[in-house]
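User: Quick sanity check before I run a bigger batch. Here is a single chain. Can you write out its predicted 3D structure?
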Amino acid sequence: MCSFLFVSREHLRNFSVDINRINESQICRGPDYTGVCIFNGHLFAHNLLSISSGFSPQPYIDEAHNLILLFNGEIYNWRELASQAVSESQVIIDVFLREGIAGLKSLDGEYALLIYDSVSDELYTATDSFSTKPLHYYVGDNGVSISSLPQPIHAMTGLEPRRHQPNAIKKVSLKNPTLDNYIVLTSSVDYYPQDNLFCFEEWCRIFESAVEKRISHRNCDSRVFLPLSSGLDSGCIAASIKKFPQAQVDLVTVIGSEDPEIIRKRLQQMHPRKHTIIDREKREDTRIIRYLHENCPDFNFEIYSSSSNYNEFDLKMADDNGSKSMVLLGEFAKDNNFKICLSGHGADELYSDYGFDGDRYALHSNFGGHWPKNLKSRFPWASFYGSSMISYLLKEEFIMGSFGVESRYPFLDKELVMYSLRLKWDSRKISYKYPLQEYLSDAGFPFTDKKYGF
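Assistant: Done. Predicted structure follows.
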């Protein structure tokens, strides 16, 4: 996970920059080590959460090519991209040198990164296709600041930073740092609906690979847990974990609106994995809300529909019931030394759009339960990149990150999403969240077709 901060030399001159004070709010995302350096007059800071064996200290400086890297997240295919490399950071720089900025499209992971070229005095920023790891910026005539969380920029400038858009690789010249010159060069991934036939067995293979890489990409001390509900999303992840018996993944359930019988039957199949139950009704809501206000960025959801005027622009993260349950999961993880959470986020947006067969399960549904025959004509729909996709991602990143826990998202795996866009509209009519129901049915894993939990 980690976090980083960049402050241009102009901002260092124009603002009172106390690095310890402005960086304090995001050290929680990287509590193991903080590295700071001044390079060509610009400030670079990085806070490390030590999870993966392929991680090098940052800021990562390539003196031979006058480059510096700040990187946050995981690159799952880094060994395949450069067999001689010893770290993810080195791979990113090697790909950049070999293929240019477009080479970053070959990265398979969940990440945000910044590359600075001191020869051209240019700055490149990129996130994965869904911006699973947050990135914020302020670019103006008086300089540039970029950080993982919004608080450092606000603390320094007194201004609200912008959020880096998903699926974008951007560049800005620090010789002329205006917002108009902070331009998108290309996308991180070229997503588009395809006409090729969808094969359920191939989807299963890709999905299980997405889960496996997110379990195995860690050092031996980084514990993993899965929030297990009675819903389809966490159920599919749990069913896939059964196929990796050596994988050490604990289970935790926040009791709320869950189906207890489905939970009980699932746990019978997952035995002897350790399972913890958290009863939310026995936890003090005021304490949880106070934690959210004191430890997480204050932001409103930007949830909306592309087919109606409905929106949830006034809903604050701290007032969302899911946020409160997530605080309990974060407390559990921190108290028990877990560093990785397997999240089911993204399945609602990509497979159901919060509806089925004409029924809207949420008012921000884009298709109202009726997927279009020609998905290309509606791509990308509001919640593919934005709306609930990014709002709930930020919720999870802000809350879990405040506890020093990295969330990983199998359903947002690059290959899996690209393949899922082949899914035809008539296949989506087979069952709610096809192919998830089909996967659980084949695995003999208990489920219900109602929407529950995480």
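The chain has two domains: 3-186, 200-443.

User: Great, the batch can go ahead then.
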